[in-house]
Amino acid sequence: MISFGPVPSRRLGISLGINNIPTPKICSYSCIYCQVGVTKRHNIIRQQFYKPEVIFKKVKKHLDSLDKNNKPDYLTFVANGEPTLDINLGESIERLKEFGIPIAVITNASLLNATEVRNNLCKADWVSLKVDSADEKVWRAINRPHILLDFNTYKENLFLFAKEYRGSLNTETMLVKDVNDNALQIQDTADLIKQIKPTTSYISIPTRPPALNWVNKPDEESLNQAYQIYLNAGINPEMILGYEGSNMGYTGNIIKDIVNICSVHPIREDAMQQLLIKDKADSRIVDYLINNHSIRKVEYNSTVYYIRQFQK
Ligand code: SF4
């Protein structure tokens, strides 16, 4: 399926997905957490898949079928594989611009050494680069790159693209328990991301069945720690934990507000108290949410935070 959704996306509002890579998945990585399974067609050579006109027509048909209230905020290339392997990506983006809807691309960033790839991505309004680790060994362990990919080249081209790109640049880090989630590793990753100066740096966890079944989510403490390390590094982090929160801040419904905010970032004890006061509520609400496993109380650097509790 070339277009799907629209789906609510915390990053992009209502997003109509575009899959420009045919199945079975073709990718330059074979991430251990990939929800599309193990990469059978490991590739770094760009090729033609669908003609831009075919993508345009499919998206047009899809948009025409949506009712007025369900029009997407973004058309998002989020492929069953690596979208920049599509040699027509730039032309497809140009063509889709006719709809007047901003275009987003979620890429693993492994092919940014190619000028054409960077030029293609520069046409998009919003780009997310995958940065799971600043350490080559961990990069190899978690992303399992194509044998011809080089870690230093990958890193250098993150910086080069960040310099060239004029749209909204974002990063995404998938944290996997005992692979890239200890404090030192996260600090290194944060130091690398900081140099890219992203608008937002998303921290996510595997929420769908991963390619390798031993892959696990980090615990809430590690996730809170990652969030605080990113924040202290001067990055604007946001968590993606697989919950459909509205991310609208204060709505007047205290339970909804706490759960929604906790899904995006941990709430510090003093901020929680402010939220309760604003809603004329008291700490029994927090106890209730802890007891029904909606949120968890965690500690970092002697400060208490509340974070969304994952489904185990
Ligand atoms: S880069 Fe994306 S599509 Fe490719 S293996 Fe990793 S998670 Fe899967």
TrEMBL record:
Where in this chain does the record put each Radical SAM core domain? 8-244
Domain of life the protein comes from = Bacteria
Please provide, alphabetically and separated by semicolons, the GO molecular function terms listed in this UniProt record. Answer: 4 iron, 4 sulfur cluster binding; catalytic activity; metal ion binding
Q: Which Gene3D superfamilies match?
A: Aldolase class I (3.20.20.70)
Which cofactors does this protein require?
A: [4Fe-4S] cluster
The organism named in the record is Parabacteroides chartae
4Fe-4S as UniProt keyword:
yes
Write out the entry's keywords from A to Z. 4Fe-4S, Iron, Iron-sulfur, Metal-binding, S-adenosyl-L-methionine
Q: Which protein are we looking at?
A: Wyosine [tRNA(Phe)-imidazoG37] synthetase, radical SAM superfamily
